[in-house]
Specification:
The structure is a single chain. The chain is α+β, with helices and mostly antiparallel strands. The protein has 5 helices and 3 strands; from the N terminus they run H-H-H-H-E-E-H-E. It has helices spanning 2-25, 30-37, 51-66, 72-75, 95-108, and strands spanning 78-82, 85-92, 113-120. It has a 3-stranded mixed beta sheet, covered by helices on one side.
Length: 124
């Protein structure tokens, strides 16, 4: 009985230590969240529901998904189209990915204006 209680106590202490370590490693996105709440930057809520804007967004997303060289991070960027203006936001792994996304977006957008706000991870 004493061994069982001792084993449970050790496991509990180990789990608590692991949970405490998890709390320390969580990312701090406070600055990003404040930027998005300010109303000065485009968020997914700014996406227009007009058929033309939705078609542009869809074409860009499909072009990104078809490109096998892009990372999953790059494929998950925000694409926000409103009144024919496309805003690209989010992190990408390299400057090459950023350039590739810009190229694909310009090609797929059919002449729509592109506002490239992509961030290369580690460059901030």
């Amino acid at each position: 009985m004493k061994r069982t209680l001792l084993a449970l106590a050790c496991l509990s202490a180990f789990n608590l230590a692991a949970l405490a370590d998890d709390e320390k490693t969580k990312p701090d996105n406070t600055a990003t969240n404040e930027r998005d709440r300010s109303g000065e930057t485009k968020t997914s809520g700014d996406q227009s529901n007009s058929p033309a804007d939705l078609k542009i967004t869809q074409a860009i997303r499909q072009a990104l998904m078809k490109d096998r060289e892009l990372s999953m991070t790059a494929k998950n960027i925000k694409i926000i189209t409103a009144n024919g203006q496309v805003t690209l936001r989010g992190p990408v792994k390299t400057a090459q990915e950023k350039a590739k996304i810009d190229q694909l977006a310009k090609s797929a957008a059919g002449g729509a204006q592109i506002d490239d706000q992509l961030d290369v991870k580690g460059s901030n």
